[in-house]
């Protein structure tokens, strides 16, 4: 198992430089934007997800499952390591954006970002886990080509849905549901985030189980 | 020790090895107690299969030319009377072959040669 | 005898191909050539041994252990070399080694360095920038550096130049100086490794045609050449298959004694090469499939 995690880290390493540039780019783009508060989590989610997908695609391209499954390990561990690598990936992405945020915080407006906070971290974890829980079973089932399609759909959702939802919320702020949700977001972000984490853990477990069943039956 | 494998030969490879090692022993180029290369080493040197080499050694052992001590390898066997006899017979044969060739050059018939041989045999 | 690999009644069917109850075994200390035309089931069999593919029925034991129940233990002791590159091609050799090495308890870094030097491998280069031969050498270096007892190789010589093929022979034979080891290699080019194979397992159309020592395989057959008028109804069935032309025939028979008795010295007899045996057998099976 540690060897499999090490493998993921070696593969992930390639994405970190990209992550650095990507987060700087996002910070600049979001600086004069209404969503600058989301810059940290947006950047971290982006880095983590692109890394996970990037690795999946390179594994698919080389049919590397053949090598990994020929090494002294088990299919159970291979699937488990993939899920754990989502966590390591998220942590690394958060470290990158957190570090990039520090010099930004010292800059003059509009680049004077606040530092990374707990809400950013939890939002990132929840979102990355959600994305992983949805896409990993598809990866284990069909390999990278389909994940690419799912990837595009989810990415469009990430980039446009928040804006649409926010706009919808602003336009319908008198609606009781929206009001309740905005209240939740505004006043109970910690509780909301923790609740979200719990839901995500359950989702990840179900997702892991599905992936495991799919992978056990696979021919390479 | 010289061993040459020919792919063109109609003899199987194990037979070629067997005959050549046997030849080396009979000619005295390999002395009793001399170590032979290990089966696996010889196989690698000649780039042939281990089983082929093993078969040659097995047959040499069966014929009493070599002995295999497990863990130590194969050695040329102490020569038994039969083998020594075979060796000397070989020597006589080859000398006689020279005589025959010489006689042929002189145009001696087989009959004449036999008479000569008979005479010599009684005198000695 | 102590078998390092034993395959028994192994079956697996695919929509377009069927591996049909194949059985063979490789005694410890020997090299087996797993030969047959492309698409005959060699790669599938190797994947089944490695548990990369699921079987329908049958048993596989490696080192006397079930290959599924003891999968991890067995794989610690197997070195593998595959036909195609399945390494992460964006990694450098050094990085790929760092991925693979930690999996093996008995990884020998000094031995690995020795192979890297011997094979002239550029460790800083990315795998995608290597030639086919280089990738194969790298794969071999990884397979040999954890002192594997059983080495499985799928088409190791395809795409390699004759110089390295000869080197490979020498490397494998020096590995075989340790008589606890075993090597199974598949190949459709038999002339290459034919010489060093102790055993030959010949597979065609998902079935084992024969599996025996190389010498026995060769001795079982005779290549006969003669004129076409000798091919009467008594003689024809003695051939595996026959190739006729305007000037005569050439055929492979698996009944050398009988055929010599019938044709005497009116025909020419030759010791077949492994290639001849495969060629004539495949021809017979194709012919049978058509009729």
Summed up:
The complex is a heterotrimer of chains A (220), B (124) and C (291). By secondary structure, chain A is mostly helical. Chain A has eight helices and no strands.
Write the layout of secondary structure elements.
The complex is a heterotrimer of chains A (220), B (124) and C (291).
Chain A: H1 2-30, H2 39-62, H3 65-70, H4 75-105, H5 118-142, H6 144-171, H7 176-187, H8 189-216
Helix pairs in contact in A: 1-2, 1-4, 2-4, 2-5, 2-6, 4-5, 4-8, 5-6, 5-8
Chain B: H1 13-26, H2 39-46, H3 50-62, E1 66-69, E2 73-76, H4 81-106, H5 110-123
Antiparallel strand pairs in B: 1-2
Helix pairs in contact in B: 1-3, 2-3
Chain C: E1 3-14, E2 17-27, E3 31-35, H1 42-49, E4 57-62, E5 65-66, H2 71-76, E6 78-81, H3 93-100, H4 109-118, H5 132-144, E7 150-154, H6 162-175, E8 182-187, H7 190-193, E9 199-204, E10 207-213, H8 214-220, E11 222-226, E12 239-245, E13 248-253, H9 256-263, E14 268-270, H10 274-290
Parallel strand pairs in C: 3-8, 3-9, 6-7, 7-8
Antiparallel strand pairs in C: 1-2, 1-4, 4-5, 9-10, 11-13, 11-14, 12-13
Helix pairs in contact in C: 4-5
The structural domain count of chain B equals 2
* CATH class annotation of the largest domain in chain B: Mainly Alpha
CATH class of the largest domain in chain C: Alpha Beta
Kindly report the oligomeric state of this protein. heterotrimer
What's the story with the biggest beta sheet of chain B? Answer: 2 strands, antiparallel
Shape of chain B, please?
elongated
The CATH topology assignment of the largest domain in chain C is: Rossmann fold
Helical percentage of chain C: 25-40%
Query: Treating each run of at least 4 consecutive H or I residues as one helix, how many helices of chain B?
Result: 5
Low-confidence sequence ranges of chain B: none
**Rg from Cα of chain B:** 19 Å
Strand fraction band of chain C? 25-35%
Number of helices, counting only DSSP H or I runs of 4 residues or more of chain C: 10
């Amino acid at each position: 198992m540690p060897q499999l995690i090490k493998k993921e880290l070696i593969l992930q390493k390639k994405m970190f430089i990209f992550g650095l540039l990507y987060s700087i780019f996002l910070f600049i783009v979001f600086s004069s934007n209404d969503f600058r508060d989301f810059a940290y989590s947006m950047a971290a989610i982006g880095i983590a997800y692109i890394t996970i997908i990037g690795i999946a695609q390179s594994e698919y391209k080389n049919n590397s499952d053949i090598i990994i499954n020929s090494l002294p390990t088990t299919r159970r561990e291979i699937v488990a390591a993939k899920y754990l690598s989502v966590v390591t990936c998220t942590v690394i992405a958060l470290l990158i954006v957190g570090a990039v945020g520090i010099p930004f915080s010292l800059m003059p407006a509009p680049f004077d970002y606040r530092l990374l906070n707990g809400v950013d971290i939890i939002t990132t974890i929840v979102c990355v886990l959600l994305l992983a829980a949805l896409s990993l079973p598809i990866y284990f089932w069909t390999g990278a080509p389909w994940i690419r399609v799912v990837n595009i759909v989810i990415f469009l959702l990430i980039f446009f849905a928040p804006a649409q939802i926010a706009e919808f919320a602003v336009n319908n702020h008198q609606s009781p549901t929206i009001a309740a949700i905005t209240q939740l977001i505004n006043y109970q972000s910690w509780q909301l985030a923790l609740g979200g984490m719990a839901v995500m853990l359950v989702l990840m477990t179900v997702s892991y189980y599905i992936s495991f069943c799919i992978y056990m039956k696979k021919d390479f | 020790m010289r061993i040459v494998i020919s792919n063109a030969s109609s003899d199987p490879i194990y037979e070629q090895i067997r005959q050549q090692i046997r030849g080396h022993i009979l000619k005295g180029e390999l002395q009793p107690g001399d170590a032979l290369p290990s089966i696996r080493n010889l196989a690698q040197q000649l780039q042939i299969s281990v089983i082929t080499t093993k078969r040659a050694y097995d047959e040499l052992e069966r014929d009493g030319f070599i002995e295999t001590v497990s863990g130590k390898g194969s050695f040329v066997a102490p020569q038994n009377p039969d083998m020594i006899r075979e060796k000397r017979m070989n020597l006589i044969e080859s000398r006689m072959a020279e005589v025959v060739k010489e006689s042929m050059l002189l145009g001696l018939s087989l009959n004449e040669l036999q008479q000569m041989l008979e005479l010599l045999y009684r005198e000695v | 005898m102590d078998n390092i690999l034993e395959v028994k009644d192994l079956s697996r069917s695919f929509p377009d191909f069927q591996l049909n109850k194949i059985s063979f075994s490789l005694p410890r200390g020997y090299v087996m050539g797993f030969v047959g035309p492309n698409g005959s089931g060699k790669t599938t069999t190797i994947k089944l041994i490695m548990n990369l593919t699921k079987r329908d029925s049958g048993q596989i034991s490696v080192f006397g252990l079930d290959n599924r129940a003891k999968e991890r233990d067995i794989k610690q002791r197997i070195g593998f070399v595959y036909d195609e590159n399945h390494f992460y091609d964006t990694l450098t050799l050094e990085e790929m080694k760092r991925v693979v090495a930690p999996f093996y308890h008995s990884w020998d870094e000094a031995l690995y360095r020795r192979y890297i030097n011997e094979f002239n491998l550029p460790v800083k280069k990315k795998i995608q920038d290597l030639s086919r031969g280089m990738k194969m050498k790298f794969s071999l270096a990884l397979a040999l550096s954890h002192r594997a007892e059983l080495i499985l190789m799928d088409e190791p010589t395809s795409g390699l130049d004759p110089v390295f093929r000869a080197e490979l022979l020498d490397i494998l034979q020096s590995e075989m100086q340790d008589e606890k080891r075993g090597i199974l290699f598949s190949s459709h080019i038999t002339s290459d490794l034919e010489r060093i194979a102790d055993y030959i397992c010949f597979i065609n159309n998902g079935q084992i045609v024969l599996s025996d020592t190389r010498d026995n395989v060769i001795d079982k057959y005779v290549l006969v050449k003669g004129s076409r008028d000798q091919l009467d109804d008594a003689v024809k069935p003695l051939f595996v298959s026959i190739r006729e032309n305007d000037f005569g025939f050439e055929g492979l028979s698996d009944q050398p004694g009988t055929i010599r008795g019938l044709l005497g010295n009116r025909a020419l007899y030759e010791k077949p090469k492994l290639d001849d045996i495969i060629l004539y057998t495949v021809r017979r099976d194709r012919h049978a499939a058509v009729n």
